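Look over this record before class:
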Amino acid sequence: MNCPQDWPEPIVRVQSLSEKGVVPDRYIKPLTERPSSDHPIHANIPIIDFQPLLSSSSDDDDGLRAATLDKISEACRDWGFFQIVNHGVSPELMDKTQKAWREFFHLPMEMKQAYANSPKTYEGYGSRLGVEKGAILDWSDYYFLHFLPFCLKDYNKWPASIPDGREVIDEYGREVVKLCGRLMKALSLNLGLGEDFLQNKFGGQDIGACLRVNFYPKCPQPDLTLGLSSHSDPGGMTLLLCDEHVAGLQVRKDNSWITVKPAPHAFIVNIGDQIQTKIGIHEPEAHAGDTVLSNAMYKSVEHRVIVNPAKERLSLAFFYNPKSDIPIEPAKELVTVDRPALYSPKTFDEYRLYIRLRGPKGKSQVDSLKCLR
């Protein structure tokens, strides 16, 4: 991809700013983007027991599976986000993985700096998204690495300073990839198509998978900044492992920001832009000028992260993506003369270049693909 080799300005680690008592101007968001407390605190994204989709087939299980698929369909339609519990990934592995990454972010700075990343691939220890000089930055550091395809998986870029860290991270990746495959089957079945439909459209087994570990240090003025600006995920699907004790993720719903309350040992699942654009078509117009998406149940939804004045927060975002050189466009099975494609084709490599160059910008990235009619 055509990314620059170096960052436009010297990198400052947000963790080093945490105890200074003031947020530097580079991190202060415009008034319209700052967090507020006007979201309904009683709301939360749905929590779904995934166990029925792991069970072997029987007549009793068929009813539970159908009910679980219905809950996923409803959550995708109403929220674009949901949590799953009893998903098959062991709580012990989830805890060990979080512990390993916490240890990394609390290593001495010079040890972490050995893994400093560049905008060329983003792999390694980073502190910004986008390469615009003078941009307003987010209050977070991160670590980014590849799992799939295997040709991109480079253990030398994984942290080696944590006892058993690479082994734990590798096992975690294998288990989450398997879970993503099961979720893709569920999403495909809810489209009324074969269970392998989305997986095949993504490249079969030749897909991409990567991990971004987000570290949000304590913030002295959390009302002025964000840990991560509003965006929708550019990939296919995201599985997020959150800190259960420190809230931070907010999901946009009905023009309000809802703070997610993570369930213990749950994964938060959200639809990415690639699945939205994969099935995006125009519905026949009911009224002149009205156009709606057929993929109302498969939409990528804006989300952001707020920060905390007293507690740091860690989250692991696992991205399950299409093969990088496959043109992503609405599936031909869903397009007709009366229901034309909503999005123009673009490879995932081309598409993710947008956020890597410009940083998170709401839904402007996916909106840029809409076909003119």
In short: The first strand starts at residue 47 and ends at 49. The chain has nine helices and 14 strands. Residues 134 and 293 are 36 Å apart (CA to CA).
